[in-house]
Write a structure and sequence with these properties.
Blueprint (H helix, E strand, L loop, with lengths): L9 E9 L5 H12 L4 E10 L5 E4 L25 H10 L4 E9 L4 H9 L12 H12 L5
Antiparallel strand pairs: 1-4, 2-3, 2-4
């Protein structure tokens, strides 16, 4: 039997939004994933990048329902794994005049598989994410009978 204390892979995502985006559905879906133990949320940081390129963190207690307010239920989701250097790095990726949610989470659904692989003497030797828009584009091309 796999060791149930084995952790799943840890991922981070940076989700960028326009200032006036309605993120309520995003927060609701994330809460559902956490409640169903599909993911374990370690950190959720909100970042605002001004038109001049400067950036700052956003305190979840200071947001309204507009913009990134859909994530207010995750106030206090701070493990200490993300640091100022991480925020600086992701802020450089953002467009000026936008807001973003930086999430660090464990794929808890994968923990039993990780445990079984380790117990069998296996190891992960490669891993890569394919962005969802790329997958959708490939499926559309296949459905249209176009070459990949």
């Amino acid at each position: 039997m796999p060791d149930q204390t084995t952790a799943g892979p840890i991922d981070f995502v940076l989700l960028e939004f326009p200032d006036d985006a309605d993120t309520k559905a995003c927060g609701d879906v994330l809460m559902d994933l956490v409640r169903r133990d599909v993911v374990r949320l370690y950190d959720l940081l909100l970042i605002r990048k001004a038109p001049d390129g400067s950036y700052s963190g956003i305190d979840l207690t200071d947001v309204t329902s507009a913009g990134v307010g859909g994530f207010t239920a995750f106030e206090g989701a701070r493990s200490g794994l993300l640091h100022d250097d991480d925020v600086r790095t992701v802020a450089e990726m953002m467009r000026p005049g936008s807001m973003a949610a930086l999430l660090l989470y464990e794929n808890t659904w994968a923990a039993p598989l990780v445990g079984a692989v380790l117990e069998a003497g296996g190891e992960l030797i490669a891993s890569q994410r394919i962005p969802a828009p790329d997958v959708l584009e490939a499926v559309e091309r296949l459905e249209a009978g176009l070459p990949g």
